[in-house]
Design a protein that fits this description.
The complex is a heterodimer of chains A (136) and B (509).
Chain A lengths: L1 H15 L10 H24 L1 E4 L3 E6 L4 E7 L5 E5 L2 H6 L1 E7 L8 E6 H15 L6
Antiparallel strand pairs in A: 1-2, 2-3, 4-5, 5-6
Chain B lengths: L13 E2 L4 H4 L1 H18 L2 H21 L1 E5 L2 E6 L5 E6 L5 E6 L1 H6 L1 E7 L7 E7 H16 L13 H4 L16 E6 L2 H9 L2 H19 L15 H30 L3 E5 L2 E6 L4 E7 L5 E7 H5 L2 E7 L12 E7 L3 H8 L9 E2 L4 H24 L11 H14 L1 E5 L2 E6 L3 E8 L3 E8 L1 H5 L2 E8 L7 E6 H12 L16 E2 L5
The chains are: A alpha+beta (136), B alpha+beta (509).
C-alpha cells in the first residue's frame, strides 16, 4: 500500500514539475501494486521458513525474520512465566502461541503458530529447566 | 488483623503519620477537583466547603484503614475503604528504597518512603511517615533484604533510626554498623557546571541561532550591517542584547535548577549498599543494594567531553526508576574519576577496558546511514529550485562528518564479568552491564548489514528503559557476544577480551 502511495505521489510530483514520463499515467502504481500483491502472497511462506526455535541445554534460541533477521537467546533461569494464547482463528487450526517472559520488558521470545500440544510440552520443558533463585 | 491504635515498636501493623490525609496533596487536589467545579458552577462557597469536608473525611477514613507491617521479611500493606486490599512485598525482591522529603515534609518532620520492586506494580509508597520512623523502616527493609534478620524480627525497632543499615537484630546479636564510605560529594560550583554543560544548553543555543538567522532573513539588521552612527542600529543592538540576556537567563536558570535539584549531593557506600542524598529544598535519598545494580551508564556530551567531564547513572530494576528523577545518578564527574567510582559501585568493571571498534566496513555503513537521509531531503529543493536549491546539498558534508564521528564513538568489550558498550557522536554513552544481570540477548541484521557482514546486538535488562547495544559489529563477533551475554562464564574459564581491529580509549576520544 505504501509503495502504491509513493508511486502515485512520485507521478504527481513529476507531473507538477512538468516532466513527461514515457509510460501511461498510473502504470507505475499498478506495477508497484502487482509486485506488492506477489510479495504478500509469498511473504507468509518465507516468514514461516525463517522461523526457528531451539532448546539448547541452557537457553531457548529463536530466529525469525525475512528482511530483518532476528536471533534471540533467553537463558532458562531468567524465565519468569510463560503464556500460551489461542485466538479463535488459532483454535480453529489447532495452533497456539507461546510467549516466554523474563524480568525485562524488552525480551523478544514469542513462538507463534505451534501445535497446541507442542506448546504445552514446550512450556513444561522450559519450566522444568528454570530452576530456582532470584532472576533479577 | 490486629487493630492498630498506637502499637509499641515492633508490635503489629502501624498507621501512617496522622498528617498523611492533609499532606497527600496530589490525591487531595484530584479529589477536590470535581466538588470544586460543581461549587463554582453553583456559585456557592458553602457547597465548596462541604466538598472539602467530605473529601477530608474520606481521606481520614482511608488513612485509618491503611496500615503497614514488616514481619518475617515481608512488608505487608493493607488498606481500602470500600474495596479492601492487601499488598505483600518480600524484602528479598527489593530493588531500591527511596526516602523523599519535600519542603512541606521537612517543615513537619515527615517523609515519604518508596519501596521499589522489579515489576511495574510491585512497588509500595508510604506517604507520610515520621522522619525517624521512615529511616528506621528503611534500615529494617534493607537489613531484611540482606537476610541479616530472621523471620519475625524485621519489624521497626527504633534502633535502626540512627543505626543505619546495620541497626537491626535481636538483643543478643552483635550490632554491626558499616562505616559509610564517601564515593562522590558535589559542591555548588560543580553543580553549577553540571547545569551549564547540560544537553539543554546545546538545544537552546541552536534555537537562538536559528531564531537570529530567521530574523535576519526576515529583515532584522544583521551583524555585518551594524552602523552604530545610525539610529537604525539601535534595533540591532537591542536584538543582540536580547539574545545575550536570554542566554544569561537560560544559564542562570540551568544553574539554579541544578543546584535546587542536586544541592548537597552525596553518594556513599554503606556496606554493600549505595546511598545517595541530594536536593536543596526537596530532599531525596535513595538506597540501592550493589547486588541490584543492573547497569552503570556514563554520558559525555560534547561540551562535557571538551571539559573532561561526564555524568553517571546507576540503574536498578525498580519500576519507579523509569523516571529519571528517581534514578541514582551523579550529575557531573571528572572523567579521571570514573574508574575510581566504578571500582566502588560496580566492582569488576574498573578500570574501563580498551574498547574494540567495529570493522572498517561499519564506517561506511555509519556514513551512509547519516548522509543518505540528509541527501534525500536536500535533493528535493535541489531539483525543484535549481540552482539556488542546490545549496541544500551542502548539508551532506556535515552529515558525512557526523557519520564518521558516530563510527569513532562505537566500541565494546567483554571485560571480566561485564559487557561494556559505547555509542553516540554528539552525546557519547558508555554502559557497563554485569553479565549476571542480563535477562536475554538478541541480535538483528538488516539486509544492508548482512551485505556488509554486520549485525547489532541488544542486551535486555530488568527494569524500564535501558537496552545497551553493540552496533554494526561483525556478525560472527555478535554471535560470540550473544552467547557470552547469556552464559556468564566462570572465572576460571572466562574467555579473553576480544581483540580488536583498532583500539580506542573508553571514555574520551
Amino acid at each position: 500500500m505504501a509503495g502504491v502511495v509513493v508511486a502515485v505521489a512520485g507521478e504527481v510530483v513529476l507531473a507538477g514539475a512538468g516532466v513527461d514520463v514515457p509510460w501511461p499515467s498510473g502504470a507505475a502504481a499498478a506495477a508497484v501494486a502487482l509486485a506488492g500483491a506477489g510479495l504478500a502472497w509469498r511473504l507468509p511462506r518465507l516468514a514461516y521458513d525463517a522461523w526457528r526455535y531451539e532448546l539448547t541445554p541452557t537457553t531457548l534460541e529463536l530466529q525469525r525474520g525475512v528482511v530483518v533477521r532476528h536471533h534471540s537467546a533467553i537463558p532458562y533461569f531468567r524465565v519468569q512465566h510463560i503464556d500460551i494464547t489461542r485466538s479463535p482463528f488459532e483454535r480453529a487450526l489447532g495452533l497456539s502461541q507461546l510467549v516466554v517472559r523474563t524480568a525485562a520488558a524488552t525480551t523478544d521470545a514469542r513462538l507463534p503458530g505451534i501445535a497446541a500440544s507442542d506448546a504445552e510440552r514446550l512450556r513444561d520443558v522450559i519450566l522444568a529447566r528454570t530452576g530456582r533463585g532470584d532472576a533479577v | 488483623m490486629a487493630t492498630p491504635s498506637e502499637p509499641a515498636p515492633g508490635e503489629g501493623p502501624r498507621r501512617l503519620h496522622p498528617l498523611s490525609p492533609v499532606l497527600d496533596l496530589s490525591g487531595l487536589g484530584r479529589a477536590l477537583l470535581a466538588p470544586g467545579a460543581v461549587a463554582l458552577g453553583a456559585g456557592g462557597l458553602r457547597l465548596l466547603a462541604l466538598g472539602v469536608v467530605v473529601v477530608l473525611a474520606l481521606q481520614v477514613l482511608a488513612w485509618s484503614r491503611r496500615t503497614y507491617q514488616l514481619a518475617g521479611g515481608v512488608l505487608r500493606i493493607e488498606g481500602g475503604v470500600v474495596v479492601r486490599s492487601q499488598q505483600l512485598l518480600p524484602c528479598e525482591r527489593i530493588q531500591q528504597v527511596n526516602l523523599v522529603q519535600k519542603l512541606r515534609h521537612r517543615a513537619l518532620g515527615v517523609a515519604v518512603l518508596e519501596v521499589e520492586g522489579a515489576g511495574r506494580e510491585s512497588g509500595a509508597r508510604l506517604a507520610v511517615l515520621e522522619r525517624g520512623r521512615a529511616e528506621a523502616l528503611r534500615a529494617d527493609l534493607l537489613a531484611a533484604k540482606r537476610g541479616a534478620v530472621g523471620p519475625g524480627v524485621g519489624e521497626a525497632t527504633g534502633a535502626g533510626a540512627g543505626a543505619g543499615a546495620g541497626g537491626v537484630g535481636g538483643p543478643e546479636a552483635p550490632e554491626w554498623v558499616p562505616t559509610p564510605w564517601p564515593v562522590v560529594t558535589l559542591g555548588y560550583r560543580q553543580l553549577a557546571l553540571a547545569g551549564v554543560t547540560g544537553v539543554e544548553l546545546l538545544v537552546f543555543l541552536t534555537v537562538i541561532t536559528t531564531a537570529v538567522q530567521f530574523g535576519g532573513d526576515r529583515g532584522w539588521p544583521s551583524l555585518d550591517r551594524f552602523d552604530l552612527r545610525l539610529p537604525g542600529a539601535l534595533g540591532a543592538v537591542l536584538v543582540v542584547a536580547g539574545v545575550l540576556a536570554a542566554v544569561a537567563l537560560w544559564l542562570g536558570m540551568a544553574v539554579a535548577a541544578s543546584i535546587l535539584s542536586d544541592g548537597g549531593f552525596r553518594l556513599t557506600l554503606v556496606g554493600d549498599e549505595l546511598h545517595v542524598q541530594r536536593g536543596l529544598l526537596d530532599r531525596k535519598e535513595a538506597s540501592v543494594p550493589l547486588a541490584r545494580v543492573q547497569a552503570v551508564r556514563i554520558d559525555a556530551s560534547a561540551p562535557r567531553r571538551a571539559l573532561g567531564l561526564v555524568s553517571l547513572r546507576i540503574d536498578s530494576a525498580g519500576a519507579g526508576s523509569g523516571e529519571d528523577d528517581r534514578r541514582v545518578r551523579v550529575p557531573i564527574l571528572a572523567a579521571g574519576e570514573v574508574d575510581r567510582v566504578l571500582a566502588l559501585v560496580a566492582p569488576g568493571s574498573a578500570p574501563l577496558p580498551t574498547l574494540r571498534s567495529p570493522p572498517p566496513v561499519a564506517r561506511r555503513r555509519s556514513v551512509v546511514r547519516h548522509a543518505v537521509p540528509v541527501a534525500l531531503l536536500a535533493a528535493a529543493p535541489a531539483v525543484l529550485a535549481w540552482p539556488v536549491g542546490a545549496l541544500a546539498l551542502v548539508a551532506v558534508g556535515p552529515a558525512v562528518a557526523a557519520g564518521r564521528a558516530a563510527y569513532r564513538g562505537l566500541g565494546h568489550a567483554l571485560a571480566g564479568d561485564y559487557l561494556v558498550t559505547r555509542s553516540g557522536w554528539l552525546n557519547r554513552r558508555l554502559v557497563a552491564v554485569p553479565l549476571a544481570r542480563v535477562q536475554s540477548a538478541r541480535s538483528r541484521a538488516t539486509p544492508l548489514q548482512r551485505r556488509a557482514g554486520l549485525a547489532t546486538l541488544s542486551v535486555d535488562l530488568a527494569g524500564p528503559g535501558l537496552v545497551p547495544q553493540v552496533r554494526d559489529e561483525a556478525a560472527a563477533v555478535v554471535g560470540e557476544l550473544r552467547a557470552a551475554a547469556v552464559h556468564p562464564p566462570a572465572a576460571s574459564d572466562r574467555p579473553q577480551p576480544v581483540s580488536g581491529h583498532s583500539r580506542t580509549p573508553a571514555v574520551q576520544e
